[in-house]
Amino acid sequence: QCRVVCPTGAITIKKDEERVWEALDDPNTRVVAQIAPAVRVAIGDSFGIPKGTNSMGKLVGALRRMGFDKVYDTTFGADLTVYEESKELVERIQNNEKLPLFTSCCPGWVKFCENKFPELTDHISTCRSPQGMFSALLKDYYRTQDEKEGVDMKTFVVSIMPCTAKKGEAIRDDYKTDGVQDTDASITTAEAARMIRRAAIKFEDIEEEAVDMPFGIVSGGGVIFGVTGGVTEAVLRKISYDKDHNHKALGEIKFSGIRGIEGVKETSIMLGDREVKIAVVHGLGNASKLIEEIKAGKRNYDFVEVMACKRGCVMGGGQPVPAGPRTKQMRMKGLYSVDTASQVRTSNENPLVRLVYDDMINGREHKLLHTR
Ligand code: SF4
């Protein structure tokens, strides 16, 4: 496969980009990309594509032309997160322990909680983020394949994220498996756009391509992880799946108050006879205020989704700028449109997730999908 090397050593480029170029240039390294949900509706901004357009197919094509060997969708990791996080929520409710359960997929929030509310870190879900789960799975998958086939090759996992905080998450000790870093380089949407330009690829003209198998089917629920309320909506879809999963149920969840841009949103669902109280908060100022109220006993929840960036990852610090009100709105709309058009709306319906649990994870959820 043709590999494009960074055309200039004279221009100062960020360290992560350099490492990715080096990996792409190394014939003994398999370079694997995973693309976060919110990236697809923002990267087009860097190339004059209409706001909120889903450019996932073009990005896949561009990465292949740059020499990436395999390209995947982080939404697959989000589907795994939904499985693990809903299981954890149900268990904690049954045992009535460490409630509310706080989500763990936003490293900006996790770090903030560790610094400002260390007494609450036990309440944060032990689930790795979608980036963390998927990188661990990818490394494990290629290691197993290479051992079987007697191939001696290094796997270098690059995550393309809307987020600068994901770089810090990637190097955390609790995001290593057997002491090895799972995500080798985390680059932002803006950095990916810069690399595409350096490779002299005309993004606007690239034909859309699909991601690779065997992780190539993802759910719409996983895609909306990129917008505030999306994690909660995906978890609620999963929890309500068994009893009444149908379009009516999806519609009810959609209109239950977890969509929209208010700083704090609330909803509840019944789990048997138990009412499960849920809050969705975005922006660290809003989160801090909400937590003080929870600590003071003024508010009471079982599940709290926290995203550090207002509106969620669509407005992450690694996304292209400027992003005014229309851009914000169109990115959110873009992700919801991808969800609506998805054949698979919930992680439960994703046939590959079940296969991965049975054939690859094989009882090693704690090792591959959770932190300490
Ligand atoms: Fe990163 Fe912001 Fe998304 Fe948190 S909300 S994961 S800080 S982009």
TrEMBL record:
<protein>
    <submittedName>
        <fullName>[FeFe] hydrogenase, group A</fullName>
    </submittedName>
</protein>
<keyword id="KW-0408">Iron</keyword>
<keyword id="KW-0411">Iron-sulfur</keyword>
<keyword id="KW-0479">Metal-binding</keyword>
<keyword id="KW-0004">4Fe-4S</keyword>
